[in-house]
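Researcher: Next sequence.
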Amino acid sequence: MPPSREEVIRIGIKHFADTHLNGFTFLPLAKERFFLRCSLDVLFLSREKPGKVFMHGDIDDRLETLFHAVKMPGCGQEIGGQTPAQDEDPFYVRLQDDAMIADVSVTTDRLLEAPSEHEYTREYAVLVMNVKLQATQRGEWWHVFG
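Model: Next structure:
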């Protein structure tokens, strides 16, 4: 009897996932061996006054934080003492490495939503991100999807 759809998915996840730190099994949607490049289009909304969008930190520091957030951690210090919850196996991340980011477009604007009682209004931001992956050549995955 052929394997069930769920079994095929589980086997595929184990093949493409990288088991890493603190019991996490990371599954990047884009890996170097897939020969992909990534473009990020970011809408950055904050409550700063017009013309002072980056009053608390400059744009390159904020973008560096964003780049680290979309990639797989490279060392235990990046995830601290956290361990995966039961529903975090695998733990999906967008990129294996932030070096795969080829293009970045950032649009800044003012966030007009009223703050909740628990957030810091000056440091709070909403980011809307569109991630586009583009193949640079035929990779190992081509026989599976192409």
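Model: Residues 5-145 form one domain. The chain has a mean pLDDT of 78.
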